[in-house]
Design brief:
- This protein has about 280 residues and is mostly helical.
- The chain has helices at about 1-5, 10-20, 30-50, 55-60, 70-95, 115-135, 140-165, 185, 195-200, 260-280; strands at about 215, 220-225.
- The protein has a two-stranded antiparallel ribbon with strand order 1-2.
- Helix 3 (about 30-50) packs antiparallel against helix 6 and helix 6 runs antiparallel to helix 7 (about 140-165).
- The chain is globular and about 60 Å long.
Length: about 280
């Protein structure tokens, strides 16, 4: 009888698997997050287009670490990649049935090559963080793949620019993974990596967190709290408040969806234990 009770977990899991329909392409549930990402990508792309660059523009930079022609080609390539990301997000958004937003952005001031590169670093690093976060706001694998790819893209760009702007890009005393941001955090106003509200001009509303809950970002992972969510992570690892609002003592930290992974680690051993009990009883 005891082995039979343990095995009751398996039909429940099988039923859930049988009734869940994995979305093949982006749908209406993905549209708000995709178009939020599109808006941010458009901000970056249009910023690059607003700054005419040439060798003379960069000649004021001290001691370039590579030939100026190569440096110019790389920074022009950043603008090309930003445009490609914008195109990919727009195509995904249209496939999900979204409407293209009509935005009028503001831009951080540019006084010389150094300020332009600092702006580019801030925007690219922010894009990396927010696309990490947006991967948990979509449901289709296709949309999640695009978010992950863009997060990696912007992280590479930010590291490249940062290596020319400051001596240490990867500090040895770091205690967290790459900073990540929820849409609410990016919509705030402020300076530095993270808030972009001063430039978005209320063009787009942040998407709602999954299951009607709120996302809490920690040093390594993230938690989904609130209505319809099951939180199994240790709150002591969190550095963020709920709803994407930073706690008073910590800056935004890594958001990589570990809440889902932890739930899997809890459920899978339980199912395996039930199978073992069944085999022994037979």
């Amino acid at each position: 009888m005891e082995s039979f009770n343990s095995f009751q977990l398996l039909p429940t899991a099988a039923m859930a698997s049988a009734t869940y329909m994995c979305p093949v392409s982006p749908g209406s549930n993905d549209a708000p997050a995709i178009m939020f990402g599109y808006t941010l990508q458009s901000l970056l792309s249009s910023y690059y287009a607003s700054v005419p660059v040439n060798e003379s523009f960069y000649s004021t930079l001290p001691s370039p670490t590579m030939p100026m022609t190569d440096f110019l080609a790389n920074t022009e390539g950043l603008a090309v990649q930003a445009k490609l990301g914008e195109q990919g997000l727009l195509e995904a958004g249209m496939a999900a049935g979204a409407m293209k937003p009509n935005c009028h952005f503001s831009y951080p001031p540019v006084t010389d090559a150094k300020s332009h590169l600092m702006n580019a670093y801030t925007l690219e690093a922010t894009m990396c963080g927010v696309f990490i976060g947006l991967a948990d706001y979509v449901q289709s694998p296709q949309a999640a793949f695009l978010m992950a790819r863009l997060a990696a893209e912007h992280g590479i760009h930010a590291s490249y620019i940062g290596s020319h702007m400051k001596p240490v890009v990867f500090p040895t005393n770091s205690t967290s993974l790459t900073p990540a941001f929820t849409p609410e955090m990016v919509s705030m106003t402020g300076m530095g990596v993270g808030p972009l509200g001063d430039y978005l001009n209320n063009c787009v509303a942040p998407p709602v967190a999954p299951c009607g809950g709120s996302v809490e970002v920690g040093m390594m992972g993230a938690m989904l709290n609130g209505q319809g969510s099951t939180n199994v992570m240790n709150n002591s690892s969190s550095a963020m408040g709920t709803g994407g609002v930073p706690s008073p003592t910590a800056m935004p930290q890594a958001f990589n969806g570990d809440a889902v992974l932890v739930q899997a680690r809890v459920l899978v051993p339980a199912v395996l234990a039930a199978l073992t009990t069944l085999v022994v009883s037979l």
